[in-house]
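Now for today's protein.

===
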Amino acid sequence: MIQSKNSLFDFKQEKRTLAFDFEILDILTFLPIQDAFIKILPIKHDSTLTYLAQQNLELVNTSKELKLNNVIADQLSSALLFKTDSLGISQPTLEIDPGYFIEVAIPNYQRQYLLHIPERLDTIQEIVMVLSPESIVQDSVPRPISQGQRFAIQGLTFDENKLIIEDFAEDFLSDLSTAMKTYSTMLIQLIGYTDARGNAVQNFRKSQARAENLKKYLIEQGVESDRIITLGEGENKILNQCTDGVECLDYEHNINNRIEISCISD
């Protein structure tokens, strides 16, 4: 007779895990932020999760008062801590919990808070957080772009001569129009670009029309026409290898379809 001290059914159940993919960017340049600290507090109790959900924590920054109850404040000291790499990315793997309270912090930037409740557990949780430099919140109304800065507006797509403004771009343009209505000295330039497909002259006209369409949108938001300068550059500044005669996929060509914004004065 063979006897065993251990039960045949005595085994440890493997803990289920969830993979995260954080990308932390600068709101002005859309460049990655290295060495950003990401605190993650797993929320294990439904009552706590309900409380946090009622606080509207999605990307709340330090310019607003964030009220957390003492339980959460105490728990934050034991939150899991991660750091972004040179690409602004951090990819932790955590145990599966009903929700996660997330805080992102780095010197000279506003803190950001997010309550993340996974909808699916079989996919990587991709989370992009865009941080604002602290200098932006010195004014009562933030300026999303400062004098001398220039970058491509994210969240714009183009269909023939139509300009499609997606949610992310709409948020930025709303902030921009509010700032321009508040600060009468703000002067901007919108520069339209196309890919290299088609006739160069037609592309110039198309790029000018795109910039004009965006100007029209800002005017409809209440910005004075004479404070928005438009310029069409056509296919003059291709960002990749997709120049005339080079075969590229659609998404590679579309990288060159963009509108850049330049702040002439703030």
